[in-house]
Amino acid sequence: MNEMYAEWLVKRKAPAYTMVLKILMGVLCVIAFLLSISPAFGIFGVIILFAVGGATYLVFRNSEVEYEYLFVTGSLSIDRIYGKSKRKKAWEATMEEIQIVAPTGSTEARDHETKEMKVLDFSSKTPGAKTYTLISQSSSERTKIIFEPNDKLLKCMKMTAPRKVVSQL
What is the dihedral sign for C-alpha 112, 114, 118, 122? Predict the structure, then answer.
């Protein structure tokens, strides 16, 4: 059995507001701690401390996002990894459902786009990154996926379905 396997990990560039949000959550933690040791607030201060601490944990964990592209014998799956610890499946399709994989902005990709299709961006959002557009059709839903595959992933996809994968211009 000739099994094709390729995986690639892409770290998403953090938005500009992330650092401000982290600093704000740190300040809120300090204020909540001061409220929790104040006798005027009593148990209410401790409850605020735990709520703000939990929210801070979620902000720090979810601000670092990576995307893992995994191609195994005709099936492509994209997972989101939050804080290098929590994995969540973001999207999955077989090569039968995929209509085309082409460089973003190419005429081949634009020919398959429609206005009512759902758009999912699994790229690093880094300026100048070499992104590809993938158009898939599952039942009646068309989806446009923007991602950054490496050469091995593209090669495996091209070997599985040569007419569906367009190489870089």
Answer: positive
Alpha-carbon distances of 82 from 32, 48, 143, rounded to whole Å: 26, 25, 23
d(CA 93, CA 160) in angstroms, rounded, equals: 14
Strand, coil or helix: 8:
strand
Four-CA torsion 122, 126, 27, 52, nearest 10 degrees: 0
Q: In the structure encoding, which two tokens stand for residue 93, read together? A: 């399709």
pLDDT in tens, 102-147: 999 999 999 989 888 999 999 999 999 999 999 999 888 999 999 9
Q: Mean per-residue pLDDT for 82-98?
A: 94
